[in-house]
Write a structure and sequence with these properties.
single chain; mainly beta; globular
């Protein structure tokens, strides 16, 4: 509900577009990850947003007595058209199925534009690959 209300207001201020598409990413090994919780990914965006992104985790917290892990972090997005966006990322990973994590998060764009994206994906624990979808409203300057 809050995302929808934000989206309507955001659309009145800037070059805004409803977007959706897919993403693919790879987890980085700890030696290549500048995160206090060793949680980093790099990936590509296809669809309404075309480009690349890097995610750096800030926090990670297991939720007691559940298979869920809450995380926060920063996503740096570089679109093929040249726009650079920074987003605060908050989400959950559900580890209830062996070998995979089901990911859901919301990205709030805080620099280079504004808007929000809803993310759904699957993390393969064997190879560190993540695939999924995104949708939302992105406004660039």
């Amino acid at each position: 509900m809050a995302v929808g209300m934000f989206s309507t207001e955001a659309a009145a201020h800037g070059n805004c577009e409803q977007v959706s598409g897919t993403f693919s990413a790879q987890s980085l090994p700890p030696e290549l990850c500048d995160s206090p919780v060793e949680l980093c990914t790099v990936g590509m965006l296809d669809g309404g947003l075309e480009g690349s992104y890097e995610f750096t985790g800030s926090t990670q917290q297991a939720i007691p007595n559940t298979p869920l892990v809450y995380f926060t972090g920063i996503s740096d997005i570089v679109l093929d058209e040249g726009a650079e966006l920074t987003a605060m990322d908050r989400g959950l990973i559900d580890f209830s199925q062996p070998g995979i994590g089901k990911l859901r998060s919301v990205l709030f764009i805080v620099d280079g534009g504004h808007g929000a994206l809803q993310i759904q994906g699957t993390l393969n624990l064997q190879n560190g690959q993540i695939t999924g979808t995104y949708s939302g409203l992105v406004c660039t300057h």
